[in-house]
Amino acid sequence: MKRIAIIGAGPTGIYTFFSLLNLRTPLSISVYEQGDKAGVGMPYSSEENSRTMLANIASIEIPPVFSTYIDWLRSQSAAHLARYGVEKAFLHVRQFLPRILLGEYFRDQFLQLVERAKKEGFEVEVHESCPVIDIAATPEGVNLWTEGEPEPKSFDLAVIATGHVWPEEDASSRAFFPSPWSGLMEAKIAAGNVGIMGTSLSGLDAAMAVAIQHGTFVEADNEQIHFHLDEGSEALKIVLMSRSGILPEADFYCPIPYEPLTIATEQAIDAAIEQGSEGLLDRIFQLMVEELQRADPAWSEAVALNTLTADSLREAWFADREKNGPFRWAVSNLDEVERNKRDRRTVPWRYTILRLHEAVEKIVPHLTEQDRERFNTGLARVFIDNYAAIPSRSIRRLLALREAGIISILTLGADYEMALKTDRTVINAEGNSWSFDTFIDARGQKPLKTKDLPFPVLRKQLESAGEEIPDVGDDYTLLAPEYLRGKIAFGALPYLMHDRPFVQGLVVCAEIGESMAKAAVQPTSRARRRLPFIGD
Question: What's the pTM value of the predicted model, to 2 decimals?
C-alpha cells in the first residue's frame, strides 16, 4: 500500500484526497494541517474571516465533492443559516454567501472523505494543529518532519497543498497588518484613521472587518443597506487606496459552464505559440480582437477596438471608471448588473473577456521578457479585473459606509512612498501626505520563489539544481533535481503564479488536485511548462 502525505487540508488538499479516493486503489494517506480543523482552509476559516466577508464564488461554480454546495446548504437548518444572515427559503445556485459558511461545507465534505476512505480499505491518519517543518526527498521516498517530532516519517509521495502564504503577523504592533489575514480578525481596531492598501475584494473585506467593530449593517427588504455607527466611534475614517483608485465591477450574469470560444480556440493559440516568442503577444491580441468583434460588434466599435493594442486596451477598459469616479460609477454598475441578473441577460464583451483569460494564460511561459512585462501591466490587469468581479452585496455595503461618511477612496498615482512608523503609517504621493493610525496591506497574494519555501532541506535540494522557481510536470510533481522526480507533487498556488498568473480559485484547486492524485498511481516526468527565471 503506497504511503501518501497531503500537506495542507484546505480545498487543494481536499480535492487531491477526493481524487485519490476515486482512483479506487487503496492507499495509506496521512493528512497534515497546521490549523486546528482539517478541511476548512484559511480563506474560509472563522479565525481569519468575519461573517460579513463573502466568498466571490457561488455554488454553480464550485466543483462538488460528495454533494454540491447548494444541496449541502439546503440540508442545513434554517436557524443555522440565519446565524449567517442567510434565508433558507431564498437559496439559489448563483448566490454569494459568507466565506465561513463555505468553510463549514468543506469541513463536512472532508470528514465524509475520511469516513468513506476508511470504509473502502484506505488507511487514513489526520494530524491537526500539526505544522510540517521540513521535507526531503531520499532515494527511498520522502521524509517529512513535523513540529515537536525529532524523527521524520517516510512516504512514497508527498503532496504539497499549502495554499496561500501571508506574512507573519507582528504581535508587538497593531498599527500595521501585512495582510488582512495576519491577525486582523482578533485585533481591536481603535476608531481613528484607518488606511487600506488595495481596492479589490480583499480591501473591501478588510474595511468591513474594521467597520463592524464600530457599528452595524442594517439590510432592508429591498436589498438596501445602511450602516449605523456606534456612539463613541465618530472618529472612524477608512481610506481605501491604490495606484488607480478604481473599484472592481459587481459580479455579472453569464452562462455556466462557459461556452467555447470561436476564434481564440486552443488550436489557434497553440498555432500562435508554435510561431515563436517574438510577436506572440501581438498575435494573441489580434485573436482577442477578432473574438470580441464577433461577439459584440457594437461595443468593439464604441471603444474603437480595431485601433487598440495589447498595451492600450487597459486604458480603454478603465476609461469609464476613471471618468465618473469610483462611487458614482459603482452605483451605475450595480444597477446595471442587477438588472441584467433579473433579466438573465449576458453582456457579450464581458463574457468574452472572462472566457479569454483562461485561454490566453497559456502563452505566458512562452513570452519574451519584454512581452511578459507588457502582458503583466496591460492584458493581465484587464483579465484580473474582469474575473475578480465581486458580490453585489459587498458593493452595497461599501456604498453604505460611503453614505455614513466613513469611507473614501484615494488615488495614489504611479509613484508613492509608504513609511512604516512605530505607531502609524505615512503615505506620500504627488506632494501630499496622509497619516494612518492603523494600516492594512490588502493587495493580495504575491508570487513566491524557491527561496521563500518554508521547508529548509527541500529548499536546498531545489536550489542545488538551480531551480529559482519550482519546475513541475503535468501531474505537478517536481522535475529537478532528478532524484525528486515522482516523489513530491507541488500544488502550492503562490509558487505557480509566475507562469500562471490566474492560478487561483476553487476550480483550479480541483484541477490541480486531480492531476496530483494521478502521481500516486503513475508518475510522469513530462514537463508541463518551463518559465525562464526573471530576477527581482
Answer: 0.93
